[in-house]
């Protein structure tokens, strides 16, 4: 029997087969040269298959990119905003996130050479746009990885009842993240996404049930009468309000990762199907958890939320959630790959377009899709660099809620909102002479997205920084401390 051949996507440019080649659809044929992908270059049997993620695997990766870190801050966001404003703003943010993510899929189909936001920035704004969006993209995912490492350290502290110095747990979390994120292709880590999604969903379900059946939250007074003092509406300060909204934006918008997911799908035309399923599922989970946990805990809700339902349930939920937290950290470290260097290719030109910096370094070189020493040393160097920076962030900003809010405001909004509005204008500006009501409506919507994104970037960052300063003044967890960060 002939050896099985890996399948290639429909949009990969396949070379002319030689005589006697099998012609079964979807197979790599015996060819005079390897098939060519607009991002990864030549695809051959000797290197990794980067185009190997199915639409269901994409659903898992999308949901895991969102659910795992953002969901853990939602009950405390409801505590800041109040029940009704929290639900309404969450639905609005999730709807906007669906549109911005949809634009990523459409832009990728129209411009198959795009792998990440730096490529989109180059198309729209030239070299300056490429550098700004590329650095912002990498920093965003390294910051998210930092919050993942912080979440893992909290989990290890909770499970072990503060078994050792927190600084040691942070280092252990970073090592775990480095090991798993060193797997080279998204297709090979989609199983991690499924495992992580199942574990984190189970953990938050346990907490949600736990707060409903127990007498009172673990941090509430344990003697005397008690009832939840949840509020339908609250009046937070400006800084607290924009910080809370930034946390919701972080929870709902995994948009910066979606170019990479679309690029590694076997059929990017199914991107929208995966997006709708993932966004609907994550929003329903967010609403259920946010409403129930906040209703029963109110001002005694913990952040992350897994610590809200008593010591025993806290340890159980963190133990079950641990694979999910590891999965989140793995995926975002994998996508970011932070190494500011460039490799001169055989064509004697510097190739600058992303797993961000890994593909930026090796794009256009034969080493991108080979198993050479240069390929492996570059890949591990990128992953290690990203992990080190994420570790420093997790150690230096040890406040989970404030860190999540800062990420959402400073970088999440900037990547998810403004660029996607600009993408629509880039692809549709040439048809402005039509000027029908649909064009005008979409143009107005995109202007709104760009403006609201700019406002939230500035205001949300201000609110998050104020929150971090207040947490330090109030005697919260100090940077690089041995103190228990799970209490």
Automatic annotation (TrEMBL):
The chain crosses the membrane at residues 53-74, 80-102, 132-153, 159-180, 192-213, 244-263, 275-296, 316-340, 373-393, 399-418, 439-462. One of its GO terms (cellular component) is membrane. It holds the Pfam family Aa_trans. The keyword DNA-binding does not apply. InterPro entries: AA_transpt_TM. It is found in: Membrane. GO terms for molecular function: L-amino acid transmembrane transporter activity. Keywords: Membrane, Transmembrane, Transmembrane helix. Residues 1-23 are annotated as: Disordered. Belongs to the amino acid/polyamine transporter 2 family. This is Amino acid transporter transmembrane domain-containing protein.
